[in-house]
Amino acid sequence: MAGTDLARHVEGIVHEDTQVHGGGLDLTVAEVYAVDGPGRVDFGGGELEAAGLEPHERTWRSEGDDYQWWHLDAGRYLIEYNESFTGDARLTLQTRSELLARGAFHPTLSVRELDRVPLSVGGAGVRLKENARASTVVDAEE
Predict the structure, then answer these.
(1) Which residue, 28, 60, 61, 74, shows the most beta carbons closer than 10 Å to its own?
(2) If you write DSSP's letter for every residue of 31-95 in order, what string do you get?
């Protein structure tokens, strides 16, 4: 589905000319979290407890930069997006090929609301700049 069709389901787009394209609509990273405490999941839901999260440290790459970078070692993180979904459509998002080629990925998801997404980083790690395009919305089911 073309990105222009998908844009009506997404709010908070950082730079539409860059994010919207023929293959979909890219989502940008607002925050990266490390899981620093266990959550709880039970059968009935009465004992659900959120995991402890700590925003991952950012660093400046160069003086004069407008945005900082996350230096992510191999491991698992949660990423939060600048964008959110609007309406009742079920949107499918997948990892951008640029991130896959650098040894990081998240599961392909089909969701109505955009929550934090688990990110797996392999090998030597990856560097992500604030507002990096990490995921692409590729379809919407209304």
Answers:
(1) 28
(2) EEEEEEE--B--SSSTT-BPPEEEEPPEE-SSTT-SS-EEEEPSEEEEEEES-EE-SS-EEEEEE
Neighbours of 97 (CB within 10 A): 10
Alpha carbons 1 and 17: distance in angstroms, whole number? 17
Q: What is the chain's Cα-based Rg? A: 16
Q: What's the rounded Cα separation, in Å, for the pair 34 and 80?
A: 11
CATH number of 3-37+50-141: 2.70.40.10
Hey, which residues does 31 pair with through a beta bridge?
Answer: 80
Q: What is the pLDDT of residues 23-64, one digit of tens each?
A: 999 999 999 999 999 999 999 999 999 999 999 999 999 988
Q: 84 and 10 in contact (C-beta within 8 Å)?
A: yes
